[in-house]
Design a protein that fits this description.
Layout: E1 7-11, E2 13-17, E3 20-24, H1 27-36, E4 40-44, H2 53-59, E5 62-65, H3 90-106, E6 110-113, H4 115-123, E7 128-129, H5 149-152, E8 157-161, H6 166-170, E9 176-179, E10 186-187, E11 196-202, E12 207-213, E13 220-224
Parallel strand pairs: 1-4, 1-5, 5-6, 6-13
Antiparallel strand pairs: 2-3, 7-10, 8-9, 8-11, 11-12, 12-13
Helix pairs in contact: 3-4
């Protein structure tokens, strides 16, 4: 008898392509779930309130909240309006922000990457810096669009791993590793309701990875600003 692979839900972006709207997931995230985790990715449509969250969570073994060109709308964290031209995805916001606390309460493991990190923080009451590159003392983490894809996703800076943290264990006990990092936004005020613990810090002092553990379930929510390599 074959062993059933875990089902990992990936909430989609909703974007217009021509006259139609499409629900999209970048292939690099599908490949990461398939090849690195050995699981089967399930695309979750960005349909907001039409999504039956409890039924969805009963059918999944985990959730991956992927990166995206869009940003969480600042109205969800009482932030200043975004500058002109900023891409938002209200359908994804309406899907992911209610889904995250539901998943935590149900004990479903969650991984947030890039925009997914933003969503995790906002879902639990945190706030965001919208333009990290304008904050003195921090690196410019914007994607260099004039560079080839292998350069855009190349190793960019070191991060220090928190001693005894999950990421240090996953890294074989290393105290520092080198990663890529493509994100103009970052957590300003971490959420507090779930007891955030930093797992690593960039050399500039920016929190770019965090783990929340719910006391009543002790399931880990892992957030990263490192992106999966593009296929």
């Amino acid at each position: 008898m074959s062993v059933q692979r875990p089902l990992i839900g990936i909430p989609a972006d909703r974007r217009p392509l021509g006259p139609q709207a499409y629900h999209l997931v970048a292939e690099k995230y599908l490949a990461a779930v398939l090849d690195a985790a050995g699981a089967l990715p399930v695309i979750v449509p960005a349909i907001g309130r039409e999504l039956e969250l409890d039924d969805l969570l009963e059918s999944l073994h985990g959730l991956l909240f992927m990166g995206s060109p869009s940003n969480v709308d600042p109205r969800h964290y009482s932030g200043e309006p975004s500058e002109s031209g900023t891409l938002h995805d209200p359908h994804r916001d309406e899907t992911t922000l209610p889904l995250i606390p539901k998943a935590v309460a149900a004990g479903v493991p969650v991984l947030g990457i890039c925009r997914g990190f933003q969503e995790m923080n906002v879902a639990f009451g945190g706030t965001l810096w919208q333009k990290l590159h304008d904050v003195p003392g921090h690196l410019d983490h914007r994607e260099p669009s004039d560079q080839p894809i292998d350069k855009q996703y190349g190793l960019a800076h070191a991060v220090r791993l928190e001693p005894g943290g999950l990421l240090q264990k996953l890294a074989g006990g290393a105290t520092e590793i080198t990663v890529n990092s493509l994100h103009p936004m970052v957590s300003l005020k971490p959420s507090v309701c779930c007891g955030p613990r930093a797992l690593h810090w960039q050399c500039s002092g920016t929190l770019s990875g965090g783990c929340w553990k719910m006391i009543f379930r002790a399931r880990c929510l892992l957030n990263l600003d490192w992106l999966a390599a593009s296929a």
